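Collaborator request, handled under Task 6.
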Amino acid sequence: MAVLSPSDAALAAALAADPRTRHLVSGWPRAGVRDAQKRALMARVRAVVGAAVGPGGGGASSSTPPPPAASSALEAARLAVLAPPVAEARDTVAAPPPGSGAAPRPDPYAWLRDDARKDARVLAHLASENAYTAAVMADADGVVEALAAEMRAAMQETDASAPLRKAGFFYYWRTEEGAQYRVSCRRRVPADAPTPTETDVPGPGAGKEEVVLDENADAAGHAFYMASGATVSPDGTQLAWGVDTTGAEAYTLRVRNLATGKDVLARSIPNTAGNYAFSADGGTLFYTTKDALDRPHKVWRHTIGDDPARDVCVRHEKDEAFYLHVHRSRDDALLLIQADSALTTEVAALDAADPRGEWKILFPRTHDTQYEVSHRGDQVIYTVRDAARPNSELMSGPAADPLGPGARVLIPHSAAEKIEDFVVGASFIAVFKRVEGLQQCLIYKVPPTSPTVPAPLKKGARIPCGDPTYELGAGAQGDWDSPVLRLSYSSLTTPASTIDVHTGTGRQATKRVAPVLGGFDPANYACERLWASSADGTRVPISLVYRPDLRAAAGGGPQPLLLNAYGAYEACSDAAFGYTQGRLPLLDRGFAFAIAHARGGGELGRAWYEDGKFDKKANTFADVLGAARFLVEAGWTTPDVLCLEGRSAGGFMVGAVLNADPDLFRAAIAGVPFVDVIR
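Structure tokens returned to the collaborator:
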């Protein structure tokens, strides 16, 4: 068996004793394993130091380790010593997915599946992988902690949201320094308060602060805590919310009397999906529970004050392709149960004032047809997406029969513009579209006294956005009859912002900008929107942010760049501000950051999504490769300093792109990658 010489052994011991060089010998395999690589590393260390080290070497003694030195050759020699764990190939068989009709197939790695997380063999292999990762990353010890501290320092722990006026209260949340969770609060609106405007804030006459939910107190004693679905009854007297203390996203329902602060359920209700809806009088609460596949499949009716054992199941979805969700319409007139699959929607409705009434199917399920529904007066306002209208059409119809002969088109379908969302108020309809991949908000005024909406809607007033690439959407909304629309906005250079718009006058007020500490100045950063070409000639948008001063100081040439992409499930990778993702430390060190808006996402309409899925999934990878090559050809970066990042389905993309062109990137991050596509 090969062994290290006394000189090499002494040098290794000296390196291990010094915090500056300990990483060079961290995670070494046992004696006799990779000894040749160990000797090569010791020789490289001596070459870097430039003097013999160890007994008989004539130089420094073994108790005097060499100073730390960085070089690619030294790092390569260090990594060559480490022995990555290799999963054992075993004679095992993979079971097919339930209901697939497929036969079991040989899979030498099927033994690694351990849904219970208790198999000693699997846990031992994971431990060896974690140990290997720690050894590889040993040279980053201290750096990780320093960067985490830098990112934390940019976050203001004591903060508060912009108050939202609703049902006689201003609602808001706040955070406190040193506390991990939010405190949700409210203050009563004065009885003589004027009609809300875009500048509306709690004045001196507002009531004293009431704590609706202190998540810090609620989380006490739990190693994990997450709240979901907090909703206040229409009369403001009760709070329903769900609590997860395991991380399984199965929420235990709780209901609290806000006047007394006491929970009112005879017993908590476990395994809910975390969404809840009160009846109009607050006496009844509807909630969903999950099946063994973690699918919300039942909607239950609970009468406040009754034993939950008497709760009634009002809907049981037996088709495993569909998930249930229950909510109340914004005008509080209807309770809605929405059943959704990947392609199809069904919507049932109930008069919120008659919680024991019969649920009526307003929109029956038709394959490859999806709806989003709101209510106003005697009308249902809804979008429909189907094969003939892939980018959705906005419509209205009588609440009794919205798809019948009384249905009217408010905004027709467009192949160039995708209707993504809408908000209905007493005096306006706000429509959120995507045009050329960028979000737009248009406000249409409607007569507040008319129960019907004029069709078609006249030209809407567009909300201007100042950045070349950004994220724009609807925020939480206040009272139904308020003329104020709340927007959520951010960009690669603008922190998350809450903006209120008066839909009658068009005036705007920025109510909150998420604070970023540490001397952040948005003027130091610039964002651009670029277009690359994919392999088939398709134009692919890119959002880019960088520091112009650092780019200029480096001569305006190529710079390190992190390229992010997702490209799946019609999800949009919008250009939102991202200091919690560690972008600012990168930008402040001379990196650029870019997002490739690849096919498979929803940025350029339904066709953009359809063109990046199933047998067209390769288009996603081609788009990312096209974006990367464009950034190199345009002089933004070089393969030697270009990095790629993707998470989940984006991690799948990373694997495919690296296999297609491994020389295009210096580094890659595949976050929880979806790579076992067969199973």
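The cover message to the collaborator said: "The two ends are 42 Å apart (CA to CA). Residues 522-671 form a domain with the Rossmann fold fold (CATH 3.40.50.1820). Please let us know whether this matches your experimental observations."
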